Amino acid sequence: MTANPEMDEDPRSCDELNTSEDGDYCGSDEGTSEESSDDDTDDEGVDAHHVDDGMIRYTLNRVIADDGSLSCPPIWSEVGNDDFFDEEAARIDGAPVGVREFVVPSPAFMELSSEALQPLNENAMIPLRSLWNEGAEFQKGMRFMCKVDIQHAVKLYSIKEHRRFVVTHSTPNVWIVRCKKYVDGCTWRLRCSRRKSHGMFEISKYAGPHTCIYADFSKDHAHLDSTVICREVENVVRRDPSISVPVLHQMIKDKYSYDVRYKKVWLGKKKAIAKVYGDWEESYKMLPRWMAALQETNPGTRVEWRHGEPNANNEVIFKWVFWAFEPSIAGFRHCRPIIQIDGTFLYGKYKHKLLIATVVDSNSHVFPLAFAIVDEESQHSWGWFMACLRHHVTDRDGICVISDRHPGILLAMNNPQNGWTRERAHH
C-alpha cells in the first residue's frame, strides 16, 4: 500500500500506529461502534469519500495535538459504514482533521512472492552503454547477441567512417580486428569474446577512434559486401520478392553513398530471399511434406512421384512429380472434351520444367487440370505426364489434345502404353 505523502513526519507503520504502548490494538471495530450515531456521517461530508465501484476503500483519521505531535493513534474506519466512523476522534477544537482515502491492493498484488524477482537479482541487467547506435563509437563492455551481430556492427561503423579493418584472429568465441593502416601508426583495434556469464559477445578491449587518414575514396567499399546488403534489403524483399536488382542498387547507393557492383546487390538479394523463404535445397526437401499436406487438406487429390537412384549418402534424388486436385478432376466431367498441354521453364537454381494441362469450361474460361515438375521436356517426361493424366484424371475417349507439337509430345501421343493413340484421342 502506498504511503500517504501527508504522513511522512511519522515513521511508524500502520500496525504500530494502531497498537498502544502496552501492545493492545486501538483500531478494532469494538469500542467505536457504540459511540457513533446515524447523524455523524452527514457532518463535514464524510460520504463524499465513498465511491460505490465495488472496491473496499478506507479513510485514515488522525488527531494532531496543539504542539504538532500525534496525540493518539489514527482510527481506521470503513467509508460508507456509519457505525465505524468516530467523528469526535477526528476533530480538534471542532475542526475536522484531514481525511485520506486508500484503496486496498488486489489479492494478486498482496500475495506476490519475491521469488519471482529472483532471476533478475541473479543476472545483472545490461547497462545502457551496452546498446550501440549505428555510426557511434564502440565502448568497452558493449554486448551483442552473437558474433554475426558484432561483425555487422563493425562493418557498418567502417563504412560510415570510410575506413577499413583486417581480422587478426577469429574463432567461434573470439574475434579480433584492427585498422588496415596499423602499419602506418593507426591504433584502432577491437577485441570481443563470448562471456560464459551471459552467453553474449562482449567487447573486452577497444582503442578508437581511427587516427589514420585516407587521401582518396573509391566508389565501392570492401566491407559493403553481400552480407551487409542482405540485412539492409531483407524487409524490402519480404514485402516485394519481385523487386528488381537495379532498384535495390539505388537504395544502397542513396544510403551509403557507395556505388557497389551489380553482382554484390544480386547476391545480397539472393541471400535475403533464402533467409525469408529458405534456400533451394530446403525448398526441395519440403516438397514431399507440402504434397502430403495438399492431400490431407484436399481429399481425393492425386500425387505421383518418380525418383532417381539414391546417391552415395543414401539420399533419394528427386526427378518428377505429378499432381491433380480433386475439384479439377470432378470438374472436367462438365468441361469441353478439349485439353491443352504445354510446358514452361522455371526460374531458379535448378532449371526444371513445369508441365501443365488445362481445359475450357462452359463459360469459356481456362480450367486448370493437372501439373507436373520434370527435369526436362523429353519423350520420357511427356509420356509419363500423359500416362498419369490418363490414369488419374480421365479415361474418356474421343478427347482432342492441343499442343505445340514438341517432339517429345508427338512421341508420347503415339505410344500405345500412354493411352492417347488415334483410337482414343485426337491430336
Automatic annotation (TrEMBL):
Where composition is biased (Acidic residues), the residues are 31-45
Which residue intervals define the domain MULE transposase in the entry? 338-415
Name the domain of life this protein comes from.
Eukaryota
Region Disordered: list its residue ranges.
1-50
Classification via InterPro entries: MULE_transposase_dom (IPR018289), Transposase_MuDR (IPR004332)
Query: What positions does the domain Transposase MuDR plant occupy?
Result: 139-203
Q: What is this protein called?
A: Transposase
Record the organism. Answer: Stephania yunnanensis
